[in-house]
């Protein structure tokens, strides 16, 4: 118990809020752009929910006591998966989750100030109620692959979902060249090549899961505006897994801001706007932090071995068959 | 007290990690737990989840091949799990749940080696198959 508490104290001491932005001068690339390059996992936010506990109101920083509980949860979870006893072999359970030092931030949503996603429009409420009622019935016994989420289908988590911390594959990488920034996400193997050279958006008729991103610099901050969405990628955790999140329309616009606040931190912000879905725009923000134990992204060729898809469809068909044993009695 | 709290928290976690790409309930049957004692023939390093292949000898002496689901190869590798970590010929016992389609596939919950060392296999099952185990083992 003592060692557990000691670990929590150490974790508490190691966790830092976002550093003051004024103390940091962003380095430049050889061609003069702010240098954001590197691997920036979101692991430290794994234990931070998208929406804030209503009890916290407008407060988005946990108290010492609240943070101790969060850190304890994180440690127990990690030990539970990895096993408490050192082993000559690495524990396979570790293969199910990334870990990071938990953060004091109480929710990923920072605006509205209460950390809660704004209400849906009346039309979106009807639309989503219909979608979710179908999902509730079908997601564990699907008639077709189309009853499953874009994540389960290995298609995409979309612009926001690809960055949100979610169990594993939290890696993000930024690579720059003159006129372009590449933002790569490990989860479902995404890479956006973002022009920062004054390029215009593609034609409105072209619609894509990841939309079309155009960037520009505001001081040392990269601002990326993405449009041309196809309205098929849920905004929320896990690409709609277990009914989480909301399906937007093609009117969706996302504005991201990447502000490197120190050598090892980028403050990532995304404002989500779709007047056909939410009654007002809302914003998430969280730090992407360098992690010496997470400095490589591996390929996630998700469909390679998506045996789940075969199993779940054949499993649903098997469940539909009458119980032969019972029928014989 | 510690045991109760730890068990609760770990159970909460396993619910959380059920969000590991897909739903446990969609693929596996919580009403059909299995305990497989067999020999590793292959560890298949594929996305989104790696699979362990084992040969299981039944009471009648007949050998049946099973597949056991694990986590993502990306994280297995990141945690230091290599192709040598579970080599063919290793004798293991796997506790998990059988696939709903009735095939010889299971979601791995825990692996025990011949010498008694035990490992979580992770798995997307929503419970800890060995809830009484806490601390050292």
Low-confidence stretches of chain A: 1-17, 84-92, 325-329
Mean pLDDT of chain A: 87
Strand residue percentage of chain B = 35-45%
Based on DSSP secondary structure assignment, what is the total number of beta strands of chain A?
10
Beta-sheet strand percentage of chain A? 15-25%
Counting copies of identical and different chains, the oligomeric state is heterodimer
Question: Hey, which two chains have the biggest interface?
Answer: A-B, 61 and 63 residues
**Spatial strand arrangement across the major sheet of chain B:** 1-2-3-5-4
- Overall shape of chain A: it is globular
Class derived from helix and strand content of chain B: alpha+beta
Largest sheet of chain B: 5 strands, mixed, barrel
Would you identify the regions of chain B where 5 or more consecutive residues have pLDDT less than 50? 1-19, 120-137
Q: Widest sheet of chain A: strand order?
A: 2-10-9-8-7-6
Element pattern of chain A in H and E: HEHEHHEEEEEEEEHH
| Number of continuous helical runs of chain A | 6
Outline of this structure?
The complex is a heterodimer of chains A (329) and B (137). By secondary structure, chain A is of the alpha+beta class.
Write structural notes for this entry:
The complex is a heterodimer of chains A (329) and B (137). Helices cover 22% and strands 19% of the residues of chain A. Chain A is α+β, with helices and mostly antiparallel strands and 329 residues long. Chain A has one domain. In chain A, strands 2-10-9-8-7-6 form a six-stranded antiparallel sheet, with no helix packed on it. A four-stranded antiparallel sheet of chain A has the order 1-3-4-5, with no helix packed on it. In chain A, helix 1 crosses helix 2. The longest helix of chain A is centred in the N-terminal third of the chain and has 19 residues. Chain A is globular. The N terminus and C terminus of chain B are likely disordered. The longest helix of chain B is centred in the N-terminal third of the chain and has 15 residues. Chain B is globular, with a radius of gyration of 15 Å. With 137 residues, chain B is of the alpha+beta class. The two termini of chain B are 18 Å apart. In chain B, a hairpin with a 5-residue loop joins strand 4 and strand 5.
């Amino acid at each position: 118990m003592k060692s557990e508490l000691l670990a929590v104290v150490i974790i508490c001491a190691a966790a830092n809020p976002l550093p003051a932005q004024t103390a940091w001068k962003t380095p430049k690339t050889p061609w003069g752009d702010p240098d954001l390059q590197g691997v920036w996992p979101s692991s430290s936010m794994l234990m931070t929910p998208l929406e804030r506990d209503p009890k916290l109101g407008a407060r988005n920083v946990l108290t010492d006591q609240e943070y101790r509980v969060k850190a304890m949860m994180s440690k127990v979870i990690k030990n539970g998966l990895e096993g408490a006893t050192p082993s000559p072999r690495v524990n396979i359970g570790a293969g199910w989750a990334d870990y990071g030092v938990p953060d004091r931030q109480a929710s990923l949503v920072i605006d509205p100030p209460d950390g809660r996603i704004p209400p849906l429009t009346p039309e979106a409420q009807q639309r989503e109620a219909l979608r979710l009622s179908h999902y509730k019935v079908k997601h564990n016994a699907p008639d077709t692959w189309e009853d499953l989420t874009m994540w389960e289908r290995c298609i995409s988590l979309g612009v926001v979902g690809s960055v949100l911390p979610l169990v594993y594959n939290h890696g993000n990488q930024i690579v720059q060249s003159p006129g372009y920034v590449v933002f790569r996400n490990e989860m479902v193997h995404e890479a956006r090549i973002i022009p920062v050279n004054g390029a215009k958006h593609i034609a409105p008729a072209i619609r894509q899961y990841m939309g079309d991103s155009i960037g520009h610099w505001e001081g040392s901050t990269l601002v990326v505006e993405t449009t041309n969405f196809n309205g098929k990628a849920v905004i929320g955790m896990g690409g709609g897994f277990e009914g989480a999140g909301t399906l937007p329309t093609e009117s969706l616009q996302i504005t991201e801001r990447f502000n490197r606040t120190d050598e090892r931190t980028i403050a990532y912000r995304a404002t989500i706007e779709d007047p056909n879905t939410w009654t007002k725009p809302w914003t998430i923000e969280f730090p992407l932090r360098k992690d010496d134990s997470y400095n490589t992204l591996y390929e996630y060729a998700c469909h390679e071995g998506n045996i789940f898809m075969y199993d779940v469809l054949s499993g649903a068909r098997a469940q539909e068959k009458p119980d032969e044993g019972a029928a014989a009695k | 007290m510690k045991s109760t709290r730890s068990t609760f928290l770990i159970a909460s976690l396993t619910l959380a990690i059920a969000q590991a790409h897909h739903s446990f309930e969609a693929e596996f049957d919580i009403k059909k737990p299995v305990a497989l004692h067999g020999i590793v023939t292959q560890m298949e390093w594929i996305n989104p989840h790696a699979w362990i292949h084992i040969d299981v000898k039944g009471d009648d002496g007949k050998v049946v091949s099973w597949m056991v689901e694990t986590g993502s190869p990306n994280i297995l590798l990141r945690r230091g799990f290599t192709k040598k970590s579970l080599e063919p010929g290793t004798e293991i016992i796997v506790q998990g749940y059988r696939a709903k389609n009735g095939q010889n596939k299971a979601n791995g919950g825990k692996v025990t080696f011949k010498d008694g060392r035990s490992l979580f296999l992770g798995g997307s099952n929503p419970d800890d198959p060995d809830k009484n185990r806490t601390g050292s083992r």
